[in-house]
Amino acid sequence: MCGTGAEVEEKEEGKEGAEEHAVRWHARMLANCYRRRDGGPVTRFEYLVASVRDGRVWSANDHWQGSVPQGEPGADASCPSLLDYLEEAGAQAWELVAVDPETEGTAVLYFKRARYG
């Protein structure tokens, strides 16, 4: 669990310049915050939210997915089918973690994947 580091700060006060001390202390605290209790690194994730309407994915993270600009004739039909979208998302290591059915014919899909770097 992340601590305040106040006890470490009190012991090291005066051993180095205040700015150096603050930088080192902050780096130690961040390193401790991103570790599991067993000492291993914490897995960080990125998320994708896709909106589905009538069997087509029309939005992903608020970005239009169709090849025809939104609002123009044929725009909805230019969006990828749900199956095609799921296959592509899976190939890019996205894992479907939840589905929120909204009104009839619409849903929101929630994906996550491990983030590296």
Describe the protein's architecture and organization:
This protein is an alpha+beta fold. The protein folds into 2 domains: 1-42, no CATH class; 44-115, no CATH class. It has helices at residues 6-12, 18-33, 82-91; strands at 44-53, 56-60, 63-64, 95-101, 106-115. A 5-stranded antiparallel beta sheet has the order 3-2-1-5-4, with helices on one face. The radius of gyration is 23 Å and the shape is elongated. It starts with 5 loop residues before the first helix and ends with a strand. The relative contact order is 0.15.
Keywords:
single chain, 117 residues, alpha+beta, 2 domains, five-stranded antiparallel sheet, 3 helices, 28% helix, elongated, disordered N terminus
What is the string of SSEs from the N terminus onward?
HHEEEHEE
User: Oligomeric status of the shown chains?
Assistant: single chain
Q: Beta-strand percentage?
A: 25-35%
Helix amount, in percent?
25-40%
Overall pLDDT level? 81
| Outline type | elongated
Number of helices: 3
| Count of discrete domains | 2
Poorly predicted regions: 1-13
Rg of Cα set: 23 Å
Q: Topology, please?
A:
Layout (H helix, E strand, L loop, with lengths): L5 H7 L5 H16 L10 E10 L2 E5 L2 E2 L17 H10 L3 E7 L4 E10 L2
Antiparallel strand pairs: 1-2, 1-5, 2-3, 4-5
Short description:
This protein folds into two domains: 1-42, no CATH class; 44-115, no CATH class. Helices cover 28% and strands 29% of the residues. It has helices spanning 6-12, 18-33, 82-91; strands at 44-53, 56-60, 63-64, 95-101, 106-115.
